[in-house]
Amino acid sequence: MDSVRLIASDMDGTLLNGRGELDPDFFIVFEQLQRHGIRFAAASGRQYDGLRKTFSPVADRMLFIAENGAYVADGRNEWLVEDMDRKTAARLIVQIRDVEGACIVLAGRDSAYIEDSLPEFVREARRYYTRCEQVDDLLSVKGDRLLKIAIYDFKGAVNNSYPYLKHLADRFQVAVSGERWMDISRKGANKGNALELIQRRLGISAEETMVFGDQMNDAEMMRQAGFSYAVANAVPEIRKIAAFTAPSNEDNGVIQVLRKVLAGRN
After folding, report:
1. Distance CA 68, CA 94 (A)
2. How many domains does the chain have?
3. Which residues, in sequence order, are bridge partners of residue 146?
4. Which of 16, 77, 176, 208 could form a disulfide with 5 if both were Cys (CB 3.0 to 4.6 A apart)?
């Protein structure tokens, strides 16, 4: 662990607890990482604006992999926008509308857009997308760069939406990101490629990188790091990919491991 110079962590189910809260101890650990020259990146399917708010006291000194890798920024500057062709997005929206129980979030750089008004869906969409506009028709959205299409599936993403849409994986990045969530984005727009971009920009190798995750949208990121940790509550497939296991998100597993990293530097 003495070689670690970059740490990237997934958010929901990993760094955050089951209520979506960040432990205040993170900010103490973050300052200690900074003193040792270790950079920290939040890697999430969430929107950049919401991630900045979560880490507001230290956001200007962080790195962000948002929208499952379609958007990368540091605290002040945009590094990458992997947007989707508008006509392609429209065709996908039409297909997804045929999936029973599925509601769509069209995620743009400036805002997210929803057309369904079911209260549970609206609540969940606004939880992850702090900039979120209700529109009559997603096909009418104009003037924003489209990063991905997120699906909230009342019947469960793994058993309902994914089997219906997995055939798209040869042309798009298709990833289950939670029990009821899955994302479709431009091919190659994933957390692993986003992390590789950060590594190149900072001159940091995979062997000097540590990552944490819990879902299959973290798989590419796991393969891009010498120290890959699945939290104890991770899905079995991710536990198989990861080199190590951290305690669960409810036990602040990420923070526990970060403290071990710091202990080796003192």
Report:
1. 22
2. 2
3. 108
4. 208
